[in-house]
Amino acid sequence: MKNSNLCKVMGLIIFTIAFLSCSTEDGEDGAIGPVGPQGEQGLIGPQGEQGEQGPAGVDGQNGQDGTDGEDGTANIIFSEWMRADWNDVDTAQLKTMHVPVTEISSNELRSRTLVYMYLRQFGTNSIYTMPGTGRWSNTWYSFTFGSTTPGFEGIVIRLESTNGVDLTEFQYSGFRGNIFRYILIPESAQAGKLNYSDYEAVKAFYNLPD
User: Fold this and answer.
1) CA-based nearest residue to 140, from 181, 102, 172
2) Against a cut of 0.90, is the pTM above it?
3) What is the pLDDT of residue 54?
């Protein structure tokens, strides 16, 4: 019995010594040991279902220098090349022709659209901007648009002699190669920053067919 009690006392003493050896002299706990190595990464779980698509973002703004960003083909309106047809006034020194415009309203044509007219003539491959003289020194080709005359809404092309000499068929005749084309740029379309008197530049910018 005494031996049993002695064994208990000795075990208690050994436990106390082991416990006190884990503390510093001032009673604080000992320093924490270094962090052990990271364990191996577990297997990647299955991918979750795709969420709903968010709303479309707003259009970007122009650059800081004021230039437009790249756009697709502008929504401009252009005609085929039209032969001269003096269907309104047809005199020796003054001729006018009506060109209906049905793609937009007369109010939009008159107030909210840029209108350009181009002219090709007999004996040259050049294309001229109207208003202007074309290739002749005694002619003036011009146009008006909107509600130009009572009962007509569209474009009126005008050719007149500027020196009192009768016009020749080379200056006015459709079968001699005098043809016209209009280009309309509504305010909602892309207006290019280019010289509209340069037809080739306009044609390239808007990808116009011949």
Assistant:
1) 172
2) no
3) 47
